[in-house]
Amino acid sequence: MSAREELSATVTPQHANPPYILALDIGTSSIRAILFDRLGRSIAGMSSRAHYTLHTAADGTVEADAQEMLNALWECIDTVTARMGALADQVIGVTSCSLVSNVLGVDQDGQAITPVYTYADTRPAPDVEVLRKRFDEREVHRRTGTLFHTSYLPARFLWLARTQPTLLKRVWRWMSIGEYMEFQLFGDAAVSYSVASWTGLLNRHLLQWDKELLEFLPINESHLSPLTDIQHPRRGLRSPYRQRWPMLAEIPWFPTIGDGAAANVGSGCVTPHRVALTMGTSSAIRVITAEQVQDVPWGLWCYRVDAQRSLPGGALSEGGNVFAWLREHLRLDGDERELEMKLASMPPDGHGLTILPFWAGERSPGWRGDARATVHGLTLAHTPEEILRAGMESVAYRLGRVFELLQPILPPQVEIIASGGALVRSSVWTQIIADVLGHPVSVSQVPEASARGTALLALEALGIISNIENVPAFTGKTFTPHGEHHKIYQAAMKRQQELYKRLWG
User: Fold this and answer.
1) The whole model's pTM is what?
2) What is the pLDDT of residue 7?
């Protein structure tokens, strides 16, 4: 094996180091199946991607069809298993991660009778206010690590009781798409502490469903899956899946974890000294710590990787979706490299625009699910490219605010590792973020950080690697901030925050 392959996040099948893990990544709008070796390197040619439809509407609807999602996942598994050849004999586990704060209802036959309600669905906005009037939100934040928001399940269940009470009563169990996958494959399902922590219903200290919230909500604990940790897999696929994938029938299938937790692990950010900044459809800044986080900064959350590791940070509903929306509607559909060059030639905040990028509502740090996007300062002289750059900068400002709030629980010296397709495709955007943060940003060379992270956690659970902290991070180019640009962006961030306060309080 060449030194280059040893340092690469991807390896050829001939040079892959067994045993292998099949990782499934159920993302927002797309699904992937990828084979990894014992060093957490993806194996070239051993991956597949499929897409499913997100159904959206002006009332805040963002939902999907559970069976369409699973059919796409089964096709990905079919493709990768068909390519494995001799490697199949050394696949020792299947692991998965998913978009989180999603939920669907199933009947007693285990069939989905609701859509998959995603984190971006903002229809429960009025019900958030009901929760805020009923509970001390700061106390709930201390227990669960989450605030009241449309993306979490307390408001979702109140919304269902208010708008679809008959449907709510028909549901036997509420579960995430990862649990639904497990239920179809094995006839039963449990929910990992990781996925449960994204519901807004897990007491993160006791690792139990929060009794005070459940007493108020129109469901009870029997409507939720039992809790488990990621080290407790299932074995023994049911028919017809046993016949479909015989090489996977008796090996362990690990519980699904949150894609954000997996992305931290996959990009090598497994201690507080490495901060993960990810940007795909949405974006987030997170750290992993083995120490109990007693006081979560207000405006941020604290989820779980597993029973031992916490995941404080903040997430935005905006990221690559803002870029994609602006590019489509501004009709900037020409050559990507040419567009990147135009964006790079523009001075920081040279357009004078102020944008609140809440195309899908706000999560961190203000948690206004009812917030909507605003573009302030437009004139006849503004070009589509300037508006697009202003949108990119506006997302960076929101990430900057999250990073500021996270400072009290970070060590003095940290390294920021960036991953996600939106940043991999745009050096301009990565440089903007480095300038906004005033901190160097190194880009991860891992093409699929979430899938890699869940594979590494399985390898640790199986004892193949002693600790995920010992696995290489595979970082590439580092973007160094420009001091003058940082000053300009600090003023622009203040301007954005002033507009936010005027509109949303």
Assistant:
1) 0.91
2) 62
